[in-house]
Amino acid sequence: MEELEHKMSAWGESLWSFHLPRWEELPELDLYMDQVITLVDHYLSPVIHSDKHTLLTASMVNNYVKNGMIPPPKKKRYTRKHVAFLIAITLLKQVLTINEVKQGILFQGKMIGIRQAYNLYCEIQEAAIQQVCAQATGHKKRNDQSENDEIQFLAAYSASKAFANKLLAEKVIALQTSYLKEGIENE
């Protein structure tokens, strides 16, 4: 059991300083598809690694363009706006459907703008990852008194929390989608 706890703690420590690039840190130069895919993989590989599939492929990007989730590239070049969308989409699709991701992005973009929404999302995601790191290393945050961090309960607790947070996110997105539709109809 001690070896398992040590490995869990080491994993948590390795992710403690995980950082998503803010809008201003994304490349200013336009990029080609293969460069975008490499860059997104570089940014997200510390938190999403799977032997089963690639994080992002050219066909995924093309589908996101086709479905109106990201703007089409200009002359086969992608901007920092594209990279920001692709980072958020790649992370969010881990727990939400593509349609829910699209609705959430549309809502946030309309409410506070793409740049601010992206930066806020990065802050929120990093805080959530740090909370998980705190659990994995055995350090509780001030607001987490009721959580059981013992290694034998951590998977069940984390899966339950992920499910509950997914339910909440789905409900909020449904309400936001309804709000946007009502706003469009009332215009």
What does it look like?
InterPro entries: DUF1836. Pfam families: DUF1836. The protein is mainly alpha-helical. It has one domain. 66% of the residues lie in helices and 0% in strands. The chain contains seven helices and no strands. The chain has helices at residues 2-15, 33-44, 58-66, 80-92, 98-112, 114-137, 151-186.
- Unreliable stretches (pLDDT < 50, length at least 5) are none
Task: Compute the number of structural domains.
Answer: 1
Give the topology string: H per helix, E per strand.
HHHHHHH
Tally the beta strands.
0
The description of the largest β-sheet is: none
Radius of gyration: 18 Å
Portion of residues within helices:
55-70%
The general outline is globular
> What is the end-to-end distance?
61 Å
Structural class: mainly alpha
- How many helical elements? 7
- Overall pLDDT level: 84
**Beta-strand percentage range:** under 5%
Features:
about 190 residues, mainly alpha, 7 helices, about 0% strand, globular
SSE topology sketch:
Layout: H1 2-15, H2 33-44, H3 58-66, H4 80-92, H5 98-112, H6 114-137, H7 151-186
Helix pairs in contact: 1-6, 2-4, 4-6, 5-6, 5-7
